[in-house]
Design goal:
alpha/beta, globular
Length: about 200
């Protein structure tokens, strides 16, 4: 428990209260209420980026994959949000990576693409427990943020990249991300992060 508190105080708090809570309390409702208390305590005013993260798809991958397999998986998830179709999303992700690698550190990649449409913007979060092979220099990328948006969302696209940059530069981010217990815990790592909000 001490280790959990050191690496992620908020997750440890949620975990402890879940363990001692009354059986009549709904777990999902309790976690949401606790999150709201934490946000209020930290005086966090949610912005558009937070609202997108609250609803964005998250995938937690247990097996080893290469970038082509990951991009195919991501395109399948993002397909529901865009009219261009899964094949074009996959092609754009591959082209963007070939043009200039989106891998920023040995464990972090932020593939980002512009797609057809108006007022469309989506973020997909992914954790790969064994790593996605992007290249020889980045054989085990475990933290992936995929950003896809229409051209008219270009400004917000850049703001989202800036928000992600602030989050991932926190000293304990990678540890929190890799140790998160489930998809909602991954979401909370982003939502509870200390960053400048617009």
């Amino acid at each position: 428990l001490y280790g959990k508190i050191r690496s992620n105080r908020e997750s440890a708090l949620l975990y402890m209260i879940k363990r001692i809570k009354s059986s009549e309390l709904n777990s999902a409702e309790l976690e949401q209420e606790l999150k709201e208390i934490i946000l209020e305590r930290e005086s966090i005013q949610q912005d558009r980026f937070d609202l997108i993260i609250e609803k964005c798809p998250i995938i937690d991958i247990s097996e080893k994959e290469n970038k082509e397999e990951f991009f195919a998986r991501a395109a399948g998830v993002l397909d529901a949000s865009f009219i261009c179709g899964e094949r074009e999303i996959y092609s754009k992700l591959l082209s963007r990576e070939a043009e200039s690698s989106t891998v920023l550190t040995p464990h972090l990649a932020i593939p980002h693409i512009i797609l057809k449409g108006d007022k469309k913007f989506e973020i997909l979060l992914a954790r790969s427990q064994k790593g996605v092979y992007f290249s020889e220099k980045a054989p085990e990328v475990k933290i992936i943020f995929v950003i896809a948006g229409s051209l008219d969302e270009r400004q917000f696209h850049l703001k989202s990249l800036a928000a992600i940059a602030q989050i991932v530069q926190q000293p304990d981010f990678q540890e929190k991300w890799l140790n998160a217990q489930n998809i909602e815990s991954l979401r909370d790592v982003i939502l509870l992060a200390d960053r400048y909000r617009n």
